Amino acid sequence: MTTMAAFTDICQWSSFHCQPSLMVPRITCTGNWNHHGLSSSFSWKLFCPESASFKFSSSRRLVARRSYVPKKGIQVVSPNIGSQTLTIEFLNAWDDEYGGVIVDPESLPSSANAFASTLKASISNWKLKGKKGIWLKITLEQADLVPIAIQEGFLYHHAEPGYVILTYWIPNEPCMLPSSPSHQIGIAAFVINDKREILVVQEKCPCSCPGVWKLPTGYIDKSEEIFSGAIREVKEETGVDTIFLEMVAFRHAHLVAFEKSDLQFVCLLKPLSLEITVDEKEIQDAKWTTLDELVQQPFYQEDQMSKRVIEICMEAYENHYNGFIAHQLISKFDGKQSYLYYKETMTE
Amino acid sequence: MTTMAAFTDICQWSSFHCQPSLMVPRITCTGNWNHHGLSSSFSWKLFCPESASFKFSSSRRLVARRSYVPKKGIQVVSPNIGSQTLTIEFLNAWDDEYGGVIVDPESLPSSANAFASTLKASISNWKLKGKKGIWLKITLEQADLVPIAIQEGFLYHHAEPGYVILTYWIPNEPCMLPSSPSHQIGIAAFVINDKREILVVQEKCPCSCPGVWKLPTGYIDKSEEIFSGAIREVKEETGVDTIFLEMVAFRHAHLVAFEKSDLQFVCLLKPLSLEITVDEKEIQDAKWTTLDELVQQPFYQEDQMSKRVIEICMEAYENHYNGFIAHQLISKFDGKQSYLYYKETMTE
After folding, report:
1. pLDDT at B335
2. Would the CA dihedral through A7, A176, B181, B136 be positive or negative?
3. Which chain A residues are closer than 8 Å to B150 by Cβ?
4. CB-CB: which of A161, A165, A258 is closest to B6?
5. In this structure, is the dihedral angle defined by the CA atoms of residues A207, A213, A215 and A218, taken in order, positive or negative?
């Protein structure tokens, strides 16, 4: 349920704290659950005032009633106006835990006109109900709806190849919705064998360090652990199998690609094999080299950052340094296990 | 120069390594530079084949010529076809360093029809030239162009409130473009005074830990350093001034808000003031408390993660533990300073 996962529990976002200032959509129900089942129950909760009972039909048609008379899946409002019937159409949606609303992405009208009118009516309805942040997911196939949402005052929040998420902040106060993800996470792998030889690569990089021998590096995959990403990158680029020993340092750089930031974690790895198989797509060449050959390259002599990183890695290898190790722990906030990286302590 | 910053130097993305597998837009020119000046020089570079010289006019009109005759800002192609004149219209764009193309976001046609035809022609032209990744930035005001780009095969890449970035991968091989940013970066602040009292808060959080006294936490701002974010959050939530001592641990959690991950860094801070001023927008209450009062809360007794974090912080405070300190270093890749976090070593 990609759709639902996109609106998962904020508490997971901060496994040993909560974030009152960040109003991220959250479904009050957890675990595996049926989306449409939930969406209507949430819609019920969302649109149910004290004064009347409301119900949804499968066609997202909402009608309030004093006396409920089923009518081919459509419920009809009959206030105290004799035989007159009032029917209002809103987008299907459910509450989040922050006084906001999550529009059901699987039930948006396919026609631009229908979407425009329903969105307008829904926004008025949410305003009347004092809702705060509105979350709207629009898939690639629904791209015609994007300009309409923007027209109504939605802003982009973030995007993945197949969809864009838009938000609308109703209160007349600064927006409390969280910003989009800000960082990429990379690794640099220091792999040293029993002969004190270090695994280095030459990259097929058009923009920098041509011919420089350097540590294997890369970015972790979605939901990948840092130590797993380091092991995978080394295997992919050089064919060498490794195990993770410790994380010895990390660099925080800003205003990098897309005005975003990145964190790169330097990992000390122990090789389990020595034979090198170069990944020709990414790597020009790879080899085992001595510390002197590595650091005596002119590039390293001129690069304060790389020099310091190699010094720290050598100290870690020679046990003069203790970096962070990954410890899997359960958090009460989400009942899940995640990794806490820290140095082994005296109590362990 | 938001527009240009969005396409800044990939090398910054990996200050002591390069990323051949990631084809992020990069302007070959660096430093402060005039956008339009650059865009035309890049357009020149982009569209200039061996066989003929090309030039742009201010109206994004591209024409190839054998003999250059200026014509009110419009250059005209006159191949070997006598007096016949050929005029082709393409989107203004420039090369990135990865064989890709960055469309000039400030020169998109305002009319949807003009954009549709020019985009189609440009894609054919880029294909002919063997280009790889195409980067297209569309602002809120240009939202009508989004469905057209999607129609032509573009996918969403990422978004900020005011714009969405779309990409198009031309080669008939797996896309080598980087994914959108994947992580949010948070902090948890352990502030302990000379009486061994710890600064704790109760959050106005609708979703979890009601009434629980916990460490001040928050997310760092765009381009903010981790240690600065910790100091700022403590000041904002409690009014207490602090200095950063060390980063003692961090937690890596996955599939959190928006299917993204987060890293939360636990920072040991020394208070410079003791008086508490609660930020009523975010915080229910704040106080100085004893270690026993903090950890004896039922919530902490049941939360493996929080318990371990407090133990590590106390060991760090009692100097039985050395976490990471931020060291500002220059990288040769971007000539910029960024922070490398690591433990003080014997050589320092």
Report:
1. 80
2. positive
3. 140, 143
4. A258
5. positive
